[in-house]
Specification:
Strand order of the largest sheet: 2-1-3
InterPro entries: GPCR_Rhodpsn, GPCR_Rhodpsn_7TM, Olfact_rcpt
Distance between the termini: 62 Å
Structural class: mainly alpha
Domain G-protein coupled receptors family 1 profile: 45-295
Strand content: under 5%
Family: Belongs to the G-protein coupled receptor 1 family.
Subcellular location: Cell membrane
Helix content: over 70%
Pfam family, one: 7tm_4
Number of strands: 3
Length: 319
């Protein structure tokens, strides 16, 4: 079994350091405060969505079940990356062990892949809701929703485990390797291996196609049917409401899949390590931050539920 071939003992003394954003102290402090603020906003925004979905009975539907799980994934996803990143911004470069780097890569790929699969599941949910509204409750049962969520997580775990295990069978020459990134992502770690990596790059492309291309194509097909169904709605208000609900999801999809495709599906000859790091900032900070903003600002049900929850909380504290 591939997992059994993990050779963290191939070089127990091998350590990694992350390349610093800047060596100027004043800019280090500024970046630290900026990224900390963004991280706290991500935690607060996504926690608010989970809280309001769990406490409001009107939001106990498959759509909001998936939305709350998406918010939970975003919290875990950024927490795998940001605290370590913040600790490396200030002061001298801090090392991360080979095993620590492998663990971060495994959880990062697992959570990111689950995120992509969940967005595809949410597109299917919108397809059933708009194209088959009379059968929606019969199709999208609680059991099916849970099964799809567990299936997405299980597939992500399997792919991530195999990919991480394959990469860390590679030898890394030297005691101290510098990763031109702020996390142990797959492409920058592969570049540090002192062995032929063509097979590993091919596996990375296959995994990227399974995680990014296929779900994105399924989302596109879903939205072709959704658009056709919406255009058949006679009510202007009905069309507006349907488009509003779907546009929130589509905005998140384009951000997530677009940025990830630029990093994982571009040919290696046309990629730049610095560009990859800049793009990674988008799907590490911007997408998780925009998720709660997009779904609350463009979703009347969530806005009303949040407003009512805040009013009730303020009234209970006043009394």
């Amino acid at each position: 079994m591939l997992v059994g071939k993990l050779v963290f003992n191939q070089s127990d003394r091998t350590e990694f350091v992350f390349r610093v954003f800047t060596t100027a102290t004043e800019f280090q402090v500024l970046l630290f405060l900026l990224f900390l603020l963004l991280y706290l906003m991500i935690l607060c925004g996504n926690t608010a969505i989970i809280w309001v979905v769990c406490t409001r009975s009107t939001l106990c539907t498959p759509m909001y079940f998936f939305l709350s799980n998406l918010s939970f994934l975003e919290i875990c996803y950024t927490t795998v990356v940001v605290p370590l990143m913040l600790s490396n911004i200030l002061g001298a470069q801090k090392t991360i062990s080979l095993a620590g780097c492998g663990a971060q890569m495994f959880f990062f790929v697992t959570l990111g892949s689950t995120d992509c699969f969940l967005l595809a599941i949410m597109a299917y949910d919108r397809y059933v809701a708009i194209c088959h509204p009379l059968h929606y409750t019969l199709i999208m049962t609680g059991k099916l929703c849970a099964q799809m969520l567990v299936g997405a997580l299980g597939l992500a775990l399997f792919l991530s485990l195999q990919l991480t295990a394959l990469i860390f069978t590679l030898p890394f020459c030297g005691h101290r390797q510098e990763i031109n990134h702020f996390l142990c992502d797959v492409p920058p770690v592969l570049r540090l291996a002192c062995a032929d990596i063509h097979v590993h790059q091919a596996v990375l492309y296959v995994v990227s196609i399974l995680v990014l291309t296929i779900p994105f194509l399924l989302i596109c097909v879903s939205y072709v049917f959704i658009t056709c169904a919406i255009l058949r709605i006679r009510s202007v208000e009905g069309r507006r409401r349907a488009f509003s609900t779907c546009s929130s999801h589509l905005t998140v999809v384009l951000l997530q899949y677009g940025c990830c495709s630029l990093v994982y599906l571009r040919p290696r000859s046309s990629t730049s390590e610095d560009e990859d790091r800049q793009i990674a900032l988008v799907y590490t900070f911007v997408t998780p931050l925009l998720n709660p903003l997009i779904y609350t600002l463009r979703n009347k049900d969530v806005k009303d539920a949040l407003r009512n929850a805040i009013i009730r909380k303020a009234a209970s504290e006043a009394s």
